[in-house]
User: Which sequence fits this backbone?
């Protein structure tokens, strides 16, 4: 092997490794470190996730582009085009779970890795299951096969609570279900990668299946010339995907993740990264691994399946209307839309500064598994905060600016006088009015002679500040329930804070706010 060729291959491999580790380090900061810089990195994370972007693209097409999130589809289109042109670089450097699997390969060393046949029926079954679940509106369940979502959940529900525990911080709202499932899924993937490198990427991951098919017909990719191959096995010993069959001199391009290790170690330069120049590698029966006709047949068969499934009703599992609605994050718009588009990755839960966002303990509307909702027993939604909408990768949360968010009505508060200590104990309070950012709750001197809470539903946005601040436990005197469809609250009137009863009692003006 020429020194220049070996040096170039080694340089390319090192640059890929540096890029992958750099991205992984940036994501660790984004998921585990508080602050504006980490929020900025988290927003960048949401820009290149293929799974939620692809689901959103399908949702846009089926809705006739009426949902208003076409921009969220751009990343999926870019990734597909880039893979079709230059190969599977997304899995090589941009996927953090793939990088972690590569790091586990260090445990094995360089020897002992042999070619592993892929489980094609399993790959097809998982891909079809993800498509069906997505079309049925259960994308939060389908996302348990998505590498980004698995990575995000593990860092949100396992690592970050552990760090908070080390710092002796409060762990209120920790979901045992989310913690157990996310941890088990993550460790299972890493365990499988130790037994067989990148097993998840080549046999289970739906993103890997789609990008792997594109990689097999891409214009520029890793190619093997079986005329130069001497079956020495050097390539197989370093292959990150166990996709090189030395005995048959064959490279499974559907599982190749562009690690570039084979280019550096091959003594005969049988491998190269480039365009078509060698004749097609053939298997033992002299048929191509996957030709263009086979790929198009698979593609159109999948398209027909998707078209048939798209006629199924989106509301496959109706919600129990007798139960109160949970309070969803601002920008969710409606329960049906939110459970249809939220992948329950936990990124908004991770970055929420008040920690009011928590995974639902089960299903919401019969299909949203562990999707986030606001838990006012922990905190409340900060009036000026828009972080959750900014970091959402799937478009489940519409990106509202601060002014629009101030009027986004995500819930409605209700006052139960029989629980309020002003009425039951004759005690001055006013905690609900003190914390209300819109003035929907205010104190007015009433029949008790004390400042009593007065509630105006039309200007309430459901932020939960009053609910969280109420000192009555376990059932607060004022509480917030969610809405099936989020609306817009009214602007407060100019005389809202006129605390004079009926506008003509001056005694109410001085003692209206006892805090």
Assistant:
């Amino acid at each position: 092997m020429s020194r220049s060729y070996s040096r170039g291959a080694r340089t390319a491999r090192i640059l890929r490794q540096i890029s992958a580790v750099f991205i992984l380090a940036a994501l660790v900061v984004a998921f585990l470190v508080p602050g504006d810089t980490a929020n900025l990195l988290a927003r960048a994370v949401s820009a290149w996730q293929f799974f939620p972007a692809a689901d959103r693209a399908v949702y846009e097409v089926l809705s006739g582009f009426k949902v208003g999130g076409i921009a969220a589809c751009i990343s999926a289109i870019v990734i597909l085009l880039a893979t079709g042109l230059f190969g599977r670089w997304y899995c090589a450097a941009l996927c953090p779970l793939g990088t972690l699997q590569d790091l586990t390969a260090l445990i094995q060393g360089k020897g002992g890795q042999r070619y592993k046949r892929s489980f094609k029926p399993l790959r097809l079954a998982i891909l079809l299951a993800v498509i069906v679940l997505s079309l049925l509106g259960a994308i939060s369940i389908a996302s348990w096969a998505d590498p980004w979502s698995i990575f995000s959940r593990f860092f949100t529900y396992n690592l970050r609570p552990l760090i908070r525990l080390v710092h002796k911080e409060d762990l209120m709202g920790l979901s045992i279900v989310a913690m157990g499932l996310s941890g088990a899924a993550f460790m299972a993937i890493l365990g499988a990668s130790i037994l067989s490198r990148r097993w998840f990427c080549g046999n289970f991951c739906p993103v890997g299946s789609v990008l792997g098919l594109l990689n097999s017909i891409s214009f520029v990719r890793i190619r093997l010339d079986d005329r130069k191959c001497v079956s020495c096995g050097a390539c197989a010993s370093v292959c990150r995907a166990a996709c090189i069959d030395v005995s048959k001199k064959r490279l499974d391009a559907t599982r190749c993740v562009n690690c570039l290790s084979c280019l550096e170690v091959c003594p005969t330069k049988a491998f190269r990264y480039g365009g078509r120049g060698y004749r097609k590698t053939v298997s033992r029966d002299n048929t191509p691994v996957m030709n263009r006709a086979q790929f198009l047949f698979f593609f159109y068969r999948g398209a027909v399946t998707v078209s048939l499934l798209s006629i199924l009703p989106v509301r496959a599992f109706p919600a129990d209307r007798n139960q109160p609605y949970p309070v969803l994050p601002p920008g969710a718009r409606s329960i049906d839309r939110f459970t249809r588009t939220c992948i329950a990755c936990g990124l908004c839960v991770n970055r929420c500064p008040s920690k009011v966002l928590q995974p639902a303990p089960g299903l919401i509307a019969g299909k949203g598994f562990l999707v986030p909702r606001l838990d006012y027993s922990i905190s409340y939604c900060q009036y000026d905060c828009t972080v959750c909408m900014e970091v959402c990768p799937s478009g489940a949360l519409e990106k509202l600016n601060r002014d629009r968010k101030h009027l986004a009505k995500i819930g409605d508060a209700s006052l139960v006088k029989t629980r309020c200590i002003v009425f039951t104990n004759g005690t001055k309070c006013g905690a609900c009015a003190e914390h209300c950012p819109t003035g929907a709750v205010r104190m007015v001197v009433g029949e008790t002679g004390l400042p009593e809470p007065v509630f105006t539903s039309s200007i309430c946005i459901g932020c939960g500040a009053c609910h969280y601040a109420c000192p009555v436990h376990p059932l607060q005197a004022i509480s917030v329930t969610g809405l099936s469809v989020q609306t817009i609250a009214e602007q407060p009137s100019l005389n809202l804070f006129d605390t004079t009863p009926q506008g003509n009692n001056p005694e109410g003006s001085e003692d209206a706010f006892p805090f």
In short: The two ends are 81 Å apart (CA to CA).
